[in-house]
Amino acid sequence: MVFCRSCVTGHGSLMTRFFVNRDNVGVGSIIIDDPGDVHHIRDVLRMKTGDEIVVSDSDTWEYRCSISAVGRTSVDAGILDKQKFAGEPDVRITLFQGMPKKDKLELIVQKATELGAAEIVPVFTGRTVVARRENFGKKIERLEKIALSAAKQCGRGKAPRIDPGMDLKEMPEVLKRFQVIIFPYENEDSRTIKEALRGIGRKPDEMAVIIGPEGGFAEEEALLLKNAGAESVTLGNTILRTETAGIAALAMCMYELEL
């Protein structure tokens, strides 16, 4: 397992990360009252007074804390140090993911979280082969739990937002807020993500990566995206599965923009 820098103390030991709402953060202490987290601290990790943890307020700040009390319904922790998130990219990348079949979206959410996506939006296209869209809402809670678990594991300051999903035809209006929009397209054989990002001149605040479903984008869908300001790019000479394409594209973007 590979740990992000913010998961590790200055002494090289791993500190467990938890997330709370901002209202749970006091002047000098934090209350952890999520039943699952309390159970994990008390019964799984068997942590005691004096053990150190990292707590994120899910917004801006993360805190190095020392546990001061472990109760049945809550854990109190004293704040030792406070800093802005160390594990969040400067660029907010939203992944618009064409809906895959079966449980592939769970893998995509997990890996996109590890790679720094700020938001994940499932997209229903003409070639989407899944159950009816109205049934998709039932899966959101599970996807949110997967994203939160991945954020804890890799040391992110917050978990990405999981959107309820949208039809591709709704995207032109949504894409107006992004400074950079790219979509890997099998009919694009020359312009790479590297060339697209190095041609923008400055690091964007927000960008969108749009991935097609199994079967790719129909020609009219690709044209709709281009008319909305999206730039088609190639991911190489091979055709990637939809669950691989998003992960590969995010990794390439993070390499160019963050490293």
Task: Record the SSE blueprint.
Layout: E1 17-19, E2 29-32, H1 35-44, E3 52-56, E4 61-70, E5 75-84, E6 92-98, H2 104-114, E7 119-124, H3 140-154, E8 161-162, E9 166-167, H4 171-174, E10 180-184, H5 193-198, E11 206-211, H6 219-227, E12 231-233, H7 242-258
Parallel strand pairs: 1-3, 6-7, 6-11, 7-8, 7-9, 10-11, 10-12
Antiparallel strand pairs: 2-5, 3-4, 4-5
Helix pairs in contact: 2-3, 2-7
Key attributes of the depicted protein:
259 residues, 28% helix, 2 domains, elongated, 24% strand, Alpha/beta knot, five-stranded mixed sheet, single chain, Ribosomal Protein L25, Chain P, alpha/beta, disordered N terminus
Derived structural class: alpha/beta
**Unreliable segments of 5+ consecutive residues:** 1-13
Strand content: 15-25%
Shape: elongated
Summed up, the domain count is 2
Query: Which homologous superfamily in CATH is the superfamily of the largest domain?
Result: SPOUT methyltransferase, trefoil knot domain
Cα end-to-end separation: 21 Å
Question: For this structure, what is the CATH class of the largest domain?
Answer: Alpha Beta
Give the overall average pLDDT: 88
- Secondary-structure element sequence? EEHEEEEHEHEEHEHEHEH
Walk me through this protein's architecture.
By secondary structure, the chain is an alpha/beta fold. It has two domains: 5-84, Hypothetical PUA domain-like, domain 1 (Ribosomal Protein L25, Chain P), CATH 2.40.240; 92-258, 3-Layer(aba) Sandwich (Alpha/beta knot), CATH 3.40.1280.10. The protein is 28% helix and 24% strand. The chain has helices at 35-44, 104-114, 140-154, 171-174, 193-198, 219-227, 242-258; strands at residues 17-19, 29-32, 52-56, 61-70, 75-84, 92-98, 119-124, 161-162, 166-167, 180-184, 206-211, 231-233. Strands 6, 7, 8, 9, 10, 11 and 12 form a seven-stranded parallel beta sheet that branches. A five-stranded mixed beta sheet has the order 1-3-4-5-2, covered by helices on one side. Strand 4 and strand 5 (75-84) form a beta hairpin. Helix 2 (104-114) packs parallel to helix 3 (140-154) and helix 2 packs parallel to helix 7 (242-258).
